[in-house]
Amino acid sequence: MVNGGQQIKKDFEEKNAFGLQDQRLELLNVRLKERGIKFRVERVRQALFVRGTFLFSDATRKRTRIRLGLKALVVENEFSVVENRAIQLESKIKKLGHVPDEEEWWIAPFEVKKRNTTKTVKEAVVELEQDFWDGRTKTSAAERTWDRMNDHYKKLPPGAVLTTDLLLGHIEATEEGSNARVKSCQYLKRLGKFHDLKELSKIDPLVGSYEPKAPTIPDEEHLQELVEILRNEKKWGWCFAALYLYGCRPSEVFSLQVKEDGIAKVLTLKRKKKNPKWRTTLALPQHLVNRLDLHDVSKPYEVNKVEEYDSKHAAYLVNAWGKWFRKRRGHLDCSLYDIRHSWAIRSLKRNMETGLAATCMGHDISTHVSTYLGGLQEKDIIEAAKNLS
User: Fold this and answer.
1) In sequence order, what are the residues at sequence separation of 6 or more whose Cβ sits closer than 8 angstroms to the Cβ of residue 239?
2) Residue 342 and residue 91: Cα distance in Å, rounded?
3) Closest CA relative to residue 252, chosen from 268, 235, 273
4) Which of 140, 172, 260, 361 has the fewest CB atoms within 10 Å distance of its CB?
5) What is the pLDDT of residues 243-275, one digit of tens each?
6) End-to-end CA distance of the chain
7) Full-prediction pTM beyond 0.90?
8) Residue 106: inside a domain, yes or no?
9) Which domain holds residue 83?
10) What total of structural domains would you count in the chain?
11) 242 near 256, Cβ under 8 Å?
12) Do 148 and 35 belong together in one domain?
């Protein structure tokens, strides 16, 4: 029988051993992450488990723990055993396509079982959505990304069996050479790839080539006249004038802050896999800042900090703003984005340095040149030639 002093000593040693084990587990999880393994190894009392989101043989996906069949203190001096067991589990999952069914999977004979891939579109989309959000922060930008994908999935019959032929049929129903065709190929292939459909390479030739239409550049004289008329509109007047003068993206107007000298700062929102960032821009033409009273700010959505920006709410407002503009643009066949494009053309006509203009608009030089140099009309080139002679 262990006396009180011996028991205290034993508990102390065991506690220290577990503490050391937990430190080693943290290092192990770093190494597993470097290997591309998404689950983590955890200690639950005196046993070791891995924790993550796993696909099971019945096609369900859930976040759970899986036993490693190792006791925490047994492997104290042979820690490599834990890492090897975790790698062994990862290897089995890859070969099976799901976690092993056997409770003691580490000693059971390895036998690959075929997954039941027959599932409806609705079931397939639900599983993809669960995987999409696994480990991802639910920001408004991420929600908009899923909504864009899901718009394509909603066009598929929910009760139909998910097959490659079904995906091909719906892709071919989109307009060839359109952006809708490109996105349909991208998102439907992602759905098929997630569910291990065969012959998905048949989608690739359907992508085709897509080039965005050249921006419609409104007549500058009539456009400025329209800006001055619409400036007095209560809800969108300031936003429209600011869009015209500073050439930012419509959704960026909500963060635009005009300084005393007419220079403004605005959040650059379109940055792939990067957070929004403040940039400086300037008004073209400068004298209209005061004439259009840009210091008297009135907008339906105010963004003063990066963390305040809600892309979903901004998209909703820009859509409403676009509807407002279409009812008031008169004979001018243009969109809010075309108003942004007009700033770029003014910068070219004023011989603004290309790098500066691109920075003000929030994109790189190559994008600026390829998008806007073609917007100069023949009469602009003739006028420029006269000035050079």
Assistant:
1) 253, 254, 299, 300, 321
2) 56
3) 268
4) 260
5) 999 999 999 999 999 998 889 999 988 766 677
6) 108
7) no
8) no
9) 16-96
10) 3
11) yes
12) no
